[in-house]
């Protein structure tokens, strides 16, 4: 059912945010997107965003009609004040606090706050993000409690009734591929494989079965493992199908 609510999707150009965009386009009458340039090491994601958005539009006349303006915001201050493997050319490693050094402190909190300010100005009342507690590296700003607390704080601070939706919060990467297929069919799965970018190192060389990437960073490992499980499940469904 199409809701009359309007949504702003945090859209990086990666697998998760593209899946969230398709999810939102299937639910909301008007959808806009927002991306952030924060000095990320994998800035290639900003380069692929326009092609991914164009590909999403081409998948459905209804989606094309519902998909509105795209916004890119300069948050390079994050890169200047944060020393992490996503904003500096250092090896990915675990830290003494138990978190990987790919954690960028405050990133998602700032993303959501800026998105809320833009949504306020644009008259949008739902924020959609790809935060997830199932396949994640322990990032505290990806947790459901963090998002719920932030929703309360944003609405108190702006006297609004914004809602934060996180459709991937309780599913793993295999299920994320499945959600993409249910939202946009095999064409969306292929678009995610061939156009989106998730690799932390910004590697965009060979196209693997699961997409582009180095294949060894945490983001690539999650994506590849989830796709292998998804593909195996699809093969099983085909093999089990009755012969007509």
From TrEMBL:
Pfam families: QueC (PF06508). Pathway: Purine metabolism; 7-cyano-7-deazaguanine biosynthesis. Binds 1 zinc ion per subunit. Its EC number is 6.3.4.20. GO terms for biological process: tRNA queuosine(34) biosynthetic process. Keywords: ATP-binding, Ligase, Metal-binding, Nucleotide-binding, Queuosine biosynthesis, Zinc. InterPro entries: QueC, Rossmann-like_a/b/a_fold. GO terms for molecular function: ATP binding; ligase activity, forming carbon-nitrogen bonds; zinc ion binding. It catalyses: 7-carboxy-7-carbaguanine + NH4(+) + 2 ATP = 7-cyano-7-carbaguanine + 2 AMP + 2 diphosphate + 2 H(+). Zn(2+) binds at residues 199, 214, 217, 220. It is an enzyme of class 6 (ligase). Its cofactor is Zn(2+). Belongs to the QueC family. HAMAP family: QueC (MF_01633). Catalyzes the ATP-dependent conversion of 7-carboxy-7-deazaguanine (CDG) to 7-cyano-7-deazaguanine (preQ(0)). This is 7-cyano-7-deazaguanine synthase. It comes from Massilia psychrophila. The lineage of its organism: Bacteria, Pseudomonadati, Pseudomonadota, Betaproteobacteria, Burkholderiales.
